[in-house]
Amino acid sequence: MTAPGAAPTADRDADEQANEQADEQAREEARLRLRRGRLVTAVVAGALALVVGVVALLGGFRERTDRLVAVPTGSTIATGPYEVTVARATVQHRTSSAQWEVVASGTVRTTGTTSIDPPVGDAGFLYARGEGGEVQASTRITLGDSTASQTQDTLTPGLPPVPWAVTFRFTADPGNRVFVAVFDQEYTTPYLFSDEKSWRSTSDASTMTVALEPLPDADY
Predict the structure, then answer these.
(1) Beta partners for 78?
(2) Separation of alpha carbons 213 and 79, rounded Å
(3) C-beta of residue 168 within 8 angstroms of C-beta of residue 177
(4) DSSP 48-83
(5) Would you say 206 and 65 are in contact if contact means Cβ atoms under 8 Å apart?
(6) What is the pLDDT confidence band of residue 88, given thresholds at 50, 70 and 90?
(7) What pTM was estimated for this model as a whole?
(8) 70-74, 109-113, 164-168, 194-198 — which is least confidently predicted?
């Protein structure tokens, strides 16, 4: 025979267990939010530090000639898992966006063991400075023949160099030439709260001054 009050006690035990589980879940979610917040902060801080460092190196604040090595235009430059050249460049005023589009071209190949595509923006390793001092990261990279109906998406290990075109967008007329910097890269853990390794630009770069071939203005 069941003693009076046994069922309510069991119900209370079940309620307490459910509350403890809910509390633990809430604490775990709070810990995850904290870790995500720290990771985002580290990523943003790292990106800002890289941008500030690049601007300083390229003369936006004060040029660091001890970290920059001048090479002739068209030289083969080894950086991370790539070998690249920059041989020429064009400039075109995009009137609809009031921007000047600089496209530097040359060749690229991967020296690594896996297929890879070169990154752009703050995650990339190419920057350009106009004669007025404006510094811009690459915004687009086209692999293969840019005039062909279809271009390639990645670089394949073991193949010879292919043509590439690197685009930079300036908010002011860059002038008659650009100062191009190809930064060295190292394989490391770039974020404070992650053990995942990736290629990251260092503060050392190979640089060259490339004359700009002007193209007619275009809307887009």
Answers:
(1) 83
(2) 26
(3) no
(4) HHHHHHHHHHTTSS---TTSEEE--TT--EEETTEE
(5) no
(6) very high
(7) 0.72
(8) 194-198
